[in-house]
């Protein structure tokens, strides 16, 4: 299991926006420079976050991006799954029917526990937690 570069960038930009004044709107180019993320790549990430209800986007001279919810309402799980989709470790865990050995496999039980713990931790931490070093 590995978080993609896009998920890493999404976490970075969301944390930055959360650390700013709640009514402040940021242009993509501004976020790109401040967060050190390639502008064209960031555009896709921001649109995906907005499409998934984590950012509000507005067009025009005073347009840009801001959080659509408060930092305590946005979990790391929300951000990661918006960008990368569901947490995935092994096909056998999510679709045991594809594996002939699923009934006797000792590995899948352990991997399923690891996945569940990882998901649980992602859901336990919010942007506010990161801002307050919780």
TrEMBL record:
For this UniProt entry, the molecular function terms from Gene Ontology, in alphabetical order, are: DNA-binding transcription factor activity
**A Pfam family:** Rrf2
Stored SUPFAM superfamilies = Winged helix' DNA-binding domain (SSF46785)
The record's section on PANTHER family has: TRANSCRIPTIONAL REGULATOR, WINGED HELIX-TURN-HELIX TRANSCRIPTIONAL REGULATOR, RRF2 FAMILY
Q: Which NCBIfam families match?
A: rrf2_super (TIGR00738)
User: Which PROSITE patterns does the protein's record reference?
Assistant: HTH_RRF2_1, HTH_RRF2_2
- What's the protein name? Transcriptional regulator, BadM/Rrf2 family
Q: Which organism is it from?
A: Deferribacter desulfuricans (strain DSM 14783 / JCM 11476 / NBRC 101012 / SSM1)
Its Gene Ontology cellular component terms are: cytosol
Give the highest taxon in the source lineage.
Bacteria
């Amino acid at each position: 299991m590995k978080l993609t570069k896009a998920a890493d960038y999404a976490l970075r930009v969301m944390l930055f926006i959360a650390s700013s004044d709640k009514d402040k709107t940021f242009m993509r180019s501004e976020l790109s420079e401040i967060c050190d993320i390639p502008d064209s790549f960031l555009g896709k990430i921001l649109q995906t976050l907005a499409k998934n209800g984590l950012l509000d986007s507005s067009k025009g001279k005073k347009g840009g991006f801001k959080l659509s919810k408060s930092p305590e309402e946005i979990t790391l799980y929300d951000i990661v799954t918006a960008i990368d989709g569901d947490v995935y470790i092994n096909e056998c865990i999510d679709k045991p029917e594809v594996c002939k050995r699923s009934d006797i496999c000792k590995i899948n039980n352990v991997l399923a526990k690891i996945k569940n713990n990882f998901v649980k931790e992602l859901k336990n931490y919010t942007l506010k937690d990161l801002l307050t070093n919780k």
